């Protein structure tokens, strides 16, 4: 039976509640999310005293979150507090008040724990094996080293965007000498981190609202075709450009910057400057944005508690099957379409010469090609395309996401597959591969037209010298509808391979 869990992160700038529906080790989905800007650190300055207005905003948010969780039947709630509460001299009375108002006992995370859970969320969403995770929040920044997929040493630094803004920058027009003082402070904090250096093969992943906002600004400027921020690669040069630009704008002009949330306009210059210096210090030429972070790390610890490590063993495969289960896919049919497609891909390797990465994307599209039928059948291929593009598939890059979605989009449609608005994400080789992969999955779909696995297997035979390919279908019964539909849809694969493609019916004699 599915269960619901709520995870709340009470941060220095914002607090957010996520609600997940899940079955242990099987599937999970984000069911609801609510965010409130509480500015808990506001006015603390160097006194480290939580102020009355900030306390009231936080308590009001907690009451609101409790009402939402109760209304949705959440059976378990995990509530954590981070930098602002951690640093506050009056934290005990604050925590007691929240407990009195809601019944919740907030778990106060250390800087190291905050870094660990943020990295755990990022690793379970990006396939990060070696490198670093940065979480720059409102009050602090955590830098976590990841080796062989496991979060390791953590540095927790007082480099939160709200903290830095209050200590160094004017709320409206920022002066050059203020920026210089801020940079000197950041440089001083990073000076002892000699281990925070890019090695060959390392990747840098960043989490948190500040980096998502910087990424969104960059996406708008580059007319990025996807609406999702997860997996977006942000170049160090672009971060440097924003760091130099944003502090020079007045607060009013910052609020008008496309892609920037207006409630972050006052603190985004400090965040951009900090990220610029972090990238320069570490030597990374870019970073990858992960939407999952601290809250998701806490969820994964719970969701995967029956495993030796709170890590999804095969993230990419799990991500595909998780999405398929959420949308109630026809398991035998989808798996058989994927099987037949991979059989064609393997047998035709000498002809198409595509690498193994495309094979994995073809399998993913085979599993997901029909999920749009939950909306309606007549246009389910278009709905599948939309769902795949807009539902975050952990472990896949935006480019790979586009290829999977396009293959699903063209699994049953007349005409030559075209990348359309996804074209900027694809290489020339991707565009060539797309037509081949769509031709393959379209035949696999029609050879499973009756959804009864009557075409149990197939073999492909090719004669490149004379320009023909034969697809021998191995059947266990009458396969008229399957062969009729497939025969009418040979054109895409034939054109892509530049060879004549013919079908021949054979008999399945069992596993050899």
In a nutshell, what does this entry contain?
With 512 residues, the chain is of the alpha/beta class.
- Quote the CATH topology of the largest domain: Hypothetical protein af1432
Largest sheet: 6 strands, mixed
- Count of individual helical segments: 20
N- to C-terminal distance: 40 Å
- Strand neighbour order, sheet with most strands: 8-7-6-9-11-10
Structural class: alpha/beta
The residue fraction in helices comes out at 40-55%
Q: From the alpha-carbon coordinates, what is the Rg to the nearest angstrom?
A: 26 Å
Q: How many domains comprise the coordinates?
A: 3
* CATH top level class name of the largest domain: Mainly Alpha
User: Mean pLDDT across all residues, rounded?
Assistant: 96
Low-confidence regions: none
Could you characterize what this model shows?
The chain has helices at residues 52-71, 83-87, 91-102, 111-126, 161-168, 176-190, 209-221, 236-246, 251-255, 268-282, 294-303, 315-326, 331-347, 349-352, 356-368, 380-390, 398-409, 428-446, 480-487, 491-497; strands at residues 3-10, 14-23, 27-37, 76-81, 107-108, 131-136, 141-147, 150-157, 203-207, 233-235, 286-289, 455-463, 468-475, 500-507. The protein has 512 residues and is of the alpha/beta class. It has 3 domains: 3-108, Nucleotidyltransferase, domain 5 (2-Layer Sandwich); 112-295, Exopolyphosphatase. Domain 2 (Nucleotidyltransferase, domain 5), CATH 3.30.420.150; 316-507, Hypothetical protein af1432, CATH 1.10.3210. It has a 6-stranded mixed beta sheet with strand order 8-7-6-9-11-10, sandwiched between helices. Helix 8 (236-246) packs antiparallel against helix 10 (268-282) and helix 13 packs antiparallel against helix 15. The radius of gyration is 26 Å and the shape is elongated. It starts with a strand and ends in a 5-residue tail after the last strand.
